[in-house]
Amino acid sequence: MKVLAKSDKGKIRDQNEDYYYISDQDKSPGIYMLADGMGGYEGGEIASRLAIDAAVRYIGNHFDIIEHTREKIMELVKEAMNYANEIVFEVAKNSEELQSMGTTLEICLIYNNRAYIGHIGDSRIYRIRDKFMRKLTTDHSYVEQLVKDGTITAEEAKNHPKKNMLMKALGCAESLEPDVMVKNFQPGDIIVMTSDGLTNMVEDSKIYETVKNNFDISDEILINMANNAGGIDNITVVIIKN
User: Fold this and answer.
1) At what angle do helices 70-93 and 43-62 cross, to 10 degrees?
2) Residues 6 or more apart from 150 whose CB is under 8 A from it?
3) What is the pLDDT of residues 169-201, one digit of tens each?
4) Are the C-beta atoms of residues 34 and 193 closer than 8 Å to each other?
5) 95-148, pLDDT tens digit by residue?
6) CB distance 28 to 90 below 8 Å
7) Beta-bridge partners for 205
8) DSSP H or E run through 20
9) DSSP strand E in 69-123: where?
10) CA–CA separation, 17 vs 24, rounded Å?
11) What's the number of CA atoms in the CB half-sphere (13 Å) around residue 158?
12) Alpha-carbon span 123 to 103, nearest angstrom
């Protein structure tokens, strides 16, 4: 397994509200997380760190004591996201300054050539296999719902004025219904986890070409591409090659 990760505050924002985690590469399972926080001054930064720290802690405390079946590991990922939601929600509820905070959260737990994925919000996870890159997650956004309903096209969604409005985020409600899935992760496959600071600035085709053709420095190149396109948001990428 080879892993690259990089985060940058971009050209406009005063601080970086994104946060990521990569586990020790000598240990199994491999655990990778990415969160894009929101909620005003310091709120987003606190939410993203709280969520990832809680989810890492939950998986670390429970992985060794569960059966390592497909169903049990998927359940563990979902429980970790729910636990993270409880932590962020309680902190927000008890602090007037942090009441509007929340975060996206992507979890990718890799075990026995499978990627167990948890997703909430509009950060994304892609898988590159051979000559194709597939988006594994679906944005929990207002604009994505409009595309699903056929109200607007995918092309129109790119510049929609409400493209950043989320329908689901972690920490904003007492209960959470994340997307949880499992995908094969074969030798040669690459997983790309990213916040919308990259995907709003760089086309999927460019992300694919960069990772395929310049893997060893692809994290740096992608950050630079987003900044060169305007860098209007924080930018984070985690790239995992099997």
Assistant:
1) 140
2) none
3) 999 999 999 999 999 999 999 999 999 999 999
4) yes
5) 888 888 999 999 999 999 999 999 999 999 999 999 999 999 999 988 877 877
6) no
7) none
8) strand 18-22
9) 102-103, 105-111, 114-120
10) 23
11) 9
12) 10
- Least Cα distance to 36 among 228, 170, 173 occurs for 170
Q: Where are the alpha helices (DSSP H) in 94-151?
A: 142-149
Six token digits for residue 114: 């499978």
Q: Which two tokens stand for residue 173?
A: 């409600």
Tens digits of residue pLDDT in 207-224 = 999 999 999 999 999 999
Residue type, 52: I
3-state SS assignment for residue 194: strand
User: Which domains occur in the chain, in start order?
Assistant: 2-241 (3.60.40.10)
Q: Are 73 and 65 in contact (CB under 8 A)?
A: no
Burial of 16 from C-beta contacts in 10 A (0-12 / 13-18 / 19+) = buried
